[in-house]
Design goal:
Blueprint lengths: L3 H15 L9 H17 L3 E5 L2 E6 L2 E5 L3 H18 L12
Antiparallel strand pairs: 1-2, 2-3
Length: 100
């Protein structure tokens, strides 16, 4: 289910964690720690972040993004999607949530 408020909160947290994902060729330890923290943040939020050399997928709160460039790009795509699609989601009246 789409949850705009929680997605925006997670997007801010992931954006801050991406700062630590410096160029892996310069600091592989910092990069690995940052990616582990990002993966944990998505899992804590009830989502997931996973991938391999063929690509990465991140999902949480009804938003999903992918990238063949790695976890940093997948996270940036997810954050962008939350910003673009999340802005289009208008709050609904509670009566319209019956049965969800």
């Amino acid at each position: 289910m789409l949850d705009r408020a929680k997605a925006i909160e997670l997007a801010g947290q992931v954006e801050r964690l991406l700062i630590g994902a410096t160029d892996w060729s310069m600091d592989r330890t910092g990069y690995d720690r940052s990616i582990a923290a990002i993966t944990a943040a998505f899992e804590t939020a009830g989502g997931a972040a996973w991938g391999d050399t063929l690509g990465w997928v991140v999902r949480a709160h009804g938003f999903r993004a992918t990238s063949t460039s790695g976890p940093v790009s997948a996270c940036r795509n997810w954050i962008s999607q939350v910003g673009q699609k999340g802005a289009l989601l208008l709050p609904r009246h509670p009566a319209t949530n019956i049965g969800e």
